[in-house]
Amino acid sequence: MLLHIPGLLGPEALAQAHAILAEAPWEDGAGTAGTQARLAKNNQQLAPTGLPARQVQALVLGALQGHPLFFSAALPRRIFPPMVNRYSGATNHYGKHVDNAVRVVPGSEGERVRADVSATVFLANPADYDGGELVIEDTYGEQRVKLAAGDMVLYPGTSVHRVEPVTRGARLAAFLWVESMVRSDEQRRLLFDLDMALMRLRERHGDDDDTVRLAGTYHNLLRMWAST
Length: 228
Ligand code: NI
Known about the structure:
The protein is of the alpha+beta class. Helix content is 34%, strand content 31%. The protein folds into two domains: 3-180, q2cbj1_9rhob like domain (Jelly Rolls); 185-225.
């Protein structure tokens, strides 16, 4: 499932992120990629445990905390601390790749996160750069994603994806992975659809015996499929 979550970061958080990143020491992004991905990767990143990266991490994790749409779609069990990247100039693209399935949290004692869901939080205003679309291959073909600053996209960790060359300006983004309580994208999708439909039904009609029964079905499916 590919899901657009608008306005994850508001204007204040974005302004803070921009101030942090204006001064930040960028490094070659290949350092944190897997063997195949490293060949395709040509961008810059912040050192994951440095202060600027940790400050941006705090902004993104704070916004994700208790975000109902993110929670319903990702059903997070663990979140890999967001990293920050930049595409511009000669380091301006990331060719086709699949993200590593299991990531070790930088600075931890070997804490692992299985990447069930991938997420990108766009930080630059799309008018300030050309190119830089995140292109995700899914069962319906290629989806080209370039979102407003502060918006997030969630997509399956299993998908082949790439970032198109940036030909003007700079594309700044935070990215992260979620280990979900529900490993299967298909099951997560069913739960999300059921949750959203149920929420709209309750908004329209309030609660009755049938919405209670449907809510029970949601929780019983989650009980069947979730690992905590
Ligand atoms: Ni990737």
